[in-house]
Amino acid sequence: MSEPFTIAIDGPAASGKGTISRAVAARFGCAHLDTGLLYRAVGAKMLEGVPPVEAARTLTAADLEAGDLRTAEIADAASKVAVIADVRAALVDFQRAFARRAGGAVLDGRDIGTVICPQAEVKLFVTASPEVRAHRRYLELIAKGARTTEDEVLADVIARDERDRDRATAPLRAAEDAVFIDTSHLGIEDAVEAAVEVIAAKRAERA
Ligand SMILES: Nc1ncnc2c1ncn2[C@@H]1O[C@H](COP(=O)(O)OP(=O)(O)O)[C@@H](O)[C@H]1O
Ligand SMILES: Nc1ccn([C@@H]2O[C@H](COP(=O)(O)OP(=O)(O)O)[C@@H](O)[C@H]2O)c(=O)n1
């Protein structure tokens, strides 16, 4: 992809959007931005005592690589700072510039197809049942040595989805022109193939 070509991938917690995004970026040779990491980095700073809006306005690349941001505690903090309109506003320009870079870009998050890149050439909305998502996230967390239970992870996932769907600014929802991929009964390879098919068809339309 030599011209800007934006692929927006949204969906609830642990639906598989990051896995699909990384694979799609590798397949089409474009850059990938996990926008959840921006909110996680701001959430982590809030837990250290930095006011969230200040953290968002001064975020650096190093903050995105600071330790393990993929913990349950930081996920919860991320969804709390993500409710604050000024936090979201501080992160918009960076995401939009990334989306239009030469060579194409894949961004995954909650509001990419609706707010950050409403003009994206491809929009996907990745879903799976809460139980399937919690199971996958549970396996991921215990593999890293976290002490938790599947019930606890399910409660966290449901609470975070509700906060993300119910907030006033840029709530989690599918864009009207998004293509849905339900990964509840799809393995990783099949989920990636489903996404690749949609993207390849859109690229062919454009050629
Ligand atoms: N289709 C799938 N089948 C089984 N496991 C999956 C699938 N997609 C993702 N996973 C696993 O589920 C976990 C969450 O996936 P991830 O892509 O990080 O989700 P998200 O980015 O939506 O939070 C990871 O451990 C990942 O390997
Ligand atoms: N574009 C985005 C990305 C994430 N977020 C917030 O950041 C939190 C963490 O996002 P994430 O994508 O890392 O979470 P997972 O889906 O990987 O569990 C979400 O629950 C949202 O509250 C957001 O509001 N907008």
UniProtKB/TrEMBL annotation:
Record localization: Cytoplasm
Q: Which organism is it from?
A: Pseudodonghicola flavimaris
Kindly give the CDD domains that the UniProt entry links to this protein. Answer: CMPK (cd02020)
Q: Which gene encodes it?
A: cmk
The reaction(s) annotated as catalysed by this protein in its Swiss-Prot or TrEMBL entry are:
dCMP + ATP = dCDP + ADP; CMP + ATP = CDP + ADP
Please name one Pfam family that this protein belongs to. Answer: Cytidylate_kin
Enzyme class (EC, first level): transferase
Q: What is this protein called?
A: Cytidylate kinase
Q: Which residues form the Cytidylate kinase domain?
A: 7-55, 67-199
Family to which this protein belongs: Belongs to the cytidylate kinase family. Type 1 subfamily.
Question: Which residues of the sequence carry a binding annotation for ATP?
Answer: 11-19
* UniProt-listed HAMAP family: Cytidyl_kinase_type1
What EC number(s) would the UniProt record show?
A: 2.7.4.25
Primary subcellular site in the record, as a coarse category: cytoplasm
Q: Which Gene3D superfamilies match?
A: P-loop containing nucleotide triphosphate hydrolases (3.40.50.300)
Q: Enumerate the UniProt keywords alphabetically.
A: ATP-binding, Cytoplasm, Kinase, Nucleotide-binding, Transferase
Q: Which GO terms describe its molecular function?
A: kinase activity
| Organismal lineage | Bacteria, Pseudomonadati, Pseudomonadota, Alphaproteobacteria, Rhodobacterales
Bilayer-crossing residues are: none
